[in-house]
Structure formats: structure tokens, C-alpha cells
Design goal:
Two copies of one chain form a homodimer. The first copy, chain A, is built from 15 helices and nine strands. Chain A has about 375 residues and is of the alpha/beta class. Chain A has two domains: about 170 residues, Rossmann fold, CATH 3.40.50.1970; about 190 residues, Up-down Bundle (Dehydroquinate synthase-like, alpha domain), CATH 1.20.1090.10. The longest helix of chain A is centred in the middle third of the chain and has 21 residues. In chain A, about 50% of the residues are buried.
Chain lengths: ~375, ~375
Amino acid sequence: MSELEIQVPAMDGGSYKVRIGSGILGSVWGRIEADFGGYGKIVVSDENVVSAGHLAKLLGGREVDSFVISPAGETSKNIDTVTKIIEAMEKACLGRDSVVVGLGGGTVGDIAGFAASIFKRGVSVVHIPTTTVAQADSAVGGKTGVDSTVSKNAYGVFWHPSAVYIDVSTLGTLDERQYRAGLVESVKHALIADSGYFEFIENNIDAILERKLDVLEKMADYNCKIKGSVVEADPNEKNQRRMLNYGHTIGHAVESASGFELLHGEAVSIGIIGAGLIEAKMGLSEPKRSDRVRKIFEKLGVPVTIPSNLDEKKLMELIRHDKKAVNKWPKFVLLEKIGTVHCQEGQWGVDVGRELVEQVLAELR
Amino acid sequence: MSELEIQVPAMDGGSYKVRIGSGILGSVWGRIEADFGGYGKIVVSDENVVSAGHLAKLLGGREVDSFVISPAGETSKNIDTVTKIIEAMEKACLGRDSVVVGLGGGTVGDIAGFAASIFKRGVSVVHIPTTTVAQADSAVGGKTGVDSTVSKNAYGVFWHPSAVYIDVSTLGTLDERQYRAGLVESVKHALIADSGYFEFIENNIDAILERKLDVLEKMADYNCKIKGSVVEADPNEKNQRRMLNYGHTIGHAVESASGFELLHGEAVSIGIIGAGLIEAKMGLSEPKRSDRVRKIFEKLGVPVTIPSNLDEKKLMELIRHDKKAVNKWPKFVLLEKIGTVHCQEGQWGVDVGRELVEQVLAELR
């Protein structure tokens, strides 16, 4: 098991540990017990996590209060679910000294983290991510939230975990489409921060698709180091952290326009290809970079073009309403080269004209 | 208008200003406009605030999005009201650059602050308190929250305001019982932190009851300086901040046992008298201290004995369940002398035996 420390103020102090291994899930509860001895505890998971056997493996027969989100997925990511979790916490007589353990994918982590952040003005949360997207991205970074009827993450706070446990062997039960889509965030990390990691992915793409545990452990290590260092520099997304948004401006618009038929990672792969087209038009391209990216995405089987049923006007409208937009137009994160984001006057977001974006959307067909 | 600065990280930086005056409400919106030029804005108030004319005076005919809590008071302090405010914010197209202005008493401030803290991972809040309790206590300090069906402030976060405006002339419309009960928190501030302030209250008690504006301004200044310095030292209530709990351990139990028939301040006055009895039994009393406190409370017309219909067993049970209890028994904040809290080995909470507390509850009849 490897271990890295992320220097971000959590509930209980100025840093937290991310522990990465394969087959470690059965020993995690003992560690949580050691770290949070006198604390009340509740595990938040969902139906998928339970049927995959992860909850049983985590608890190993121990009697622990548990809340299972049902149905699993985005439709349960709302304030009603949070209210039910808070009620369960009160029923379990949890107080200010308590810890919420989120076991599952990104949705479970977002909900569990949000419930922890608002329960009696904040209690600890421990994340145990079980999907490619949660292990690569959402478990580290402290973003929590649930959706309103109008928008995603309308409710939420920044609330950093007290510990993160990543068992890459939990990925073994993930369905193929989810598994592959979640890998796009890993490719994004490599692109924005580490050319060596990008080469690692290129060289090991078959082993990754075969879910070889040693390769997945190495990836988790790369991902958490990259995400962790960006979050350390800018915990509440004032500047540097925006670089994590690479590929997400077009990506979010495509995801939303598809009515969430496309998975997040599938929309981001299209967004990354789009960012590459913008880079080329702005003289930021390197020889072969976009070919190398496309080759990986083709191997992963994630889309690189916008589905033909998505209306271009609607996409432009959604980009205008990007939540990071200022004066109704977002800045774009672009690459200088593989592993390095283009930085303009200390800002990681670049002005890109609307016409250029329209051209790129047309080319993405 | 006087101005003081409180060094606590708010949404937008490392301090915020409290501006105190009388008759300033009509000029506050201009200042908010100056501070939050490009921001979207929404005012949260309640029916009482509207009928007192405060909302109209604040806005001075400007068209501003507004949410009026109805009915006013604790029954609306729940997650449903928060959800409605968030929906109103989305309908008003507010984004991450927005500010919630809470205009009203403690309940309005708690709700408005909580809505701001969880909207899109946190937006700014400006408090304009209009009651004695909110001006003395809740507007400064960053506590936000709403109740569940089980407990008070089950939902909440620490979220410090970006600015506070106190117009003591808004107290002119407050009903007499609310007005007097809210003054108990001012007496508490004097007792825990400033013997000069205590003498000021003694010497000006008639003017205070007549709501003389110059005296109320001076009190607001004392209150915010005391509360501000405690909060600066311990923003998230890890240690020193607990001293603000003086009189609240018995007070909360009495308030809850009365089914909230007693106002918060009325319960705290009983709790402060109770703390004085504990101090006497533990050799911490000064000559005449408790007489001086009683005299003020009698002038204010707030209760100094537990209503006879409240069951002593229930009170002991409620004290055991105090949310600050550790191992089912809370520590008590006690005075060394007027203006100084007794500190035991660096802790502001003192162990007090159950039998002694039972005796004191009996003496409070």
C-alpha cells in the first residue's frame, strides 16, 4: 500500500492521507477505527456498491449504521437524499464527533461529503471511491454537492476529507462503459501536468483495459499526486485549480445537451479533442499531440465527435451559461504542450472568441 | 457611524467590517452596491421585517430580488425554507458571484447565512440584524443553520459574513418582550469579557429600556468587539469560543423543556443565575456579584427562576444530551470574576458534578 499526504485543511487539521492499494478494502475499517476511535460512524453507499459486495467487504460482519442510496446514480443526487441521511445520522445518535464514510462512485462521494459538511456545522468525511472517475478525480479535492431541479451541484460546499482509501481491486466489478469513461479524467491529468504519465498511459493502455492491478495502482498514484498538488495550491478554486477544467467547457455543454445520455468522461473526451482543435487554431499545437490523444481515446472506445442529434445553437447557449463564465463567456483552459497548461499573465484560463468556438463545434461533428 | 474589523476568513478574504450606527439603514444598500458592484443580489427577510418597514427602507424603491420568510420565526427555520431560497436564487439567475443579504433577527440570519454557504459551494452573505439578540450575538460569528424535526441547527456550517451593518434604530419597532430578552446576551458578553461594560449596563439600564439610540450604539460597539475578538481567536469553536456558552448549558435545557415557550434570552437569564449558583458552590463567587446580576435581570423583567411546570428529571436528561457534551455530560463555563471566565488548564469548560447541578436546579425554583 502506498500513501501520500495532501496539505489541505480538513475538518480535523491541516492535511489528510490518501492510501492506495489493491485488495485493501477488508482492512480499511480497522484503520478508520484506529483513526476515529470514539467517533460515531455511518457508511453511505448505494445499491450498486452493495450488490458488488463492497459494503460487506468493508464492514466484515461488523454492525455499523449504514445508509444505502436508492436508486443509485444522479437521480438520487438531490436535497431529499441528504435530508434522509441527516435523519439517519440523528437516529443513530451521531454528534459533532462523528464521521461519514462514503463508499462508492462520484455521486456517493458528493452526497456523503455534502451531508458531512452540513451536519451540525460539519463532521469528518472519509472517502472510499470505487469507480475510475471517483478514484482518479472526485475523491480528492473536497468538492461536494447535490443537484437542484434547475442545475447540477446547485447545493454544495468545499469540504475536504479526513482520509481517502483507494482500493483499485474494487474497479473489477465496474461495468465496461463506466470503467472506460472514467479513465478520461486520468488522461486529462496526464495532459495538464505530467508528460511521463501520458507516456505511461500510452505504453500500458492494453493492461489498463485488462484492469491489471499493478498498473491501476500506479495510475491512482499519479492521479492523486497531480490532483493533490493542484488542490493544495488552490483549495477553493480561485485560480490554479481551474486547470482541472481542461476539456470540461465544451465537455459540460455536450454532457448537458445529451440529457446526460453521455457519461461525464465521454463528454470530456469530446471536450479534450475540442480543446485540441482550439489549441491548433491558436498556434499552441505540438506535432502529433492530437494524434496521440485521439489514439488513446480510440483505444478506450470513448467518443471524439459530438453526436449528430445535438443542436449547435443549444451547445453555444450552454457554453455561455457555463458556471465558471464571467460576463456570459467562459475562459478556456488550453495546453502549451503535453504536461503543461498554457498560462497567460498568471491566469490558467484563456480568452477564446465565440466564432472560433463555433468553428470547432462544427469540426467536432 | 462607527466601524470595526473582524479578522476571520470570510468568503472573499481574511476579514470583514461591522458598521454600527443609528438611522443608517437607508444608506446601507448604496454601500452594498459599492462593495459588490457586479454581483447578483437577493435580500432574505421575513414577514415581521417587512411589516416593520425595514425592507422598504433598505431598498428605497430599488427593484431587487427578495425572499420573505413566512411565517416569521423558528417554525420556518427548516430545510424546506432553504430549498425555496435556493430556488429563488436560481430563478434570479444568481451565480457564484452573488451575495445574500440577510435582513432580520437571528432566525433570518441563520437561514440566509446557511443558504449562502451552500449555494454553488458558497457565496457571500451580508447580515443586517434588526433585533437585540441578532445585533448583540448572532450576526457576528459565522454560525448558520436550520433545524431538523429532531434537533436545532441539525443542518449548518460555519460561514462568516462579508459585512455586517447594525442600525440600532431598527430596534425601535421590536416588541417589548423580544427586546428585553435579547438584551440578556449583552449582559452575558459583559460578564465573560468586560467589567467596564457590565458597569455601563448597570449605569444605563433605564436608558437601555427606553431604547435611547446613543446608548444602544455604544452597546452594539461593546458587543461586537467582545464577540469579534472571541471569534477571531477561535472561528470554528474548538476552545475559547466555548466561553460564549456562559449560562447556556442550563439555559438550553430550560428553553427546550419549555417547548420554546421561553424565548432564548429568557432561558439564558435563568441559566446565568444557575451558573452563579454553581460558582458560589465551587468557591468562585465574588461579593455581591450575583446580586448585581439579579438586579439587572429584574430591571429587564426576564425570569431568574425555572417555571414550576418544568420537570427536573427532564432538565437533567436534556443537560446530558447537550450538543457540546462529551461522554454524556457537558462542561460548564463559569466566571472567575465579572469580566473574566474561569480557565482550568487552558480549558474554558469546567467539570461540575451531577449532584451539584441537581441541587442548583432545585434552588432555581
